[in-house]
Description:
mainly alpha
Amino acid sequence: xxxxxxxxxxAMNYGAIIGIVLVIYQLLLYLFDVLRSSFWISSILSIVMxxxxxxxxxxxxxxxxxxxxxxxxxxxxxxxxxxxxxLFASIITGFFNYLLNAVIDPGYxxxxxxxxxxxxxxxxxxxxxxESDIENTIEKMNSEPLPxxxxxxxxxxxxxxxxxxIISLITSAFLKKEGDPxxxxxxxxxxxxxxxxx
Length: 198
């Protein structure tokens, strides 16, 4: 990519926008105390967050392709660009997660874990799982200590970037637009024949 169109700067801008949208979404979930919802509702809300990310990546890559790269983008360019978008979006959401768990509401993580356990118990009970198996599952969940706010933030950044790379592997196949190499070569030949001979 040309120096006058640095991919990092544009990926940072688009990633920041997507990250802010995701933070607003997470903030709304926090304010409405959605963490106490059922297993299915929590799963749907997580899927909604994923859809927001994917749509943001697709829109950003199309906009970058059209307005910055002149309508063309290779698979590798789209892959790198999509991954970088997710990296910067994940940095913003990771920072928000740190603030939420360390400053805004230090007990949030513990309540989230408890709500998750309640959802798992409800789901397993509805599926007819035995009491002993449910108890074993809860014991395993309780045996793991709660991660620190810093670890939560870093994990969020890591998995957000890895997830973005995986999503980009798929979306880049649909977003690439490399033009017609045969038409480009024919245009070059025509330009050479039209130019005056010295």
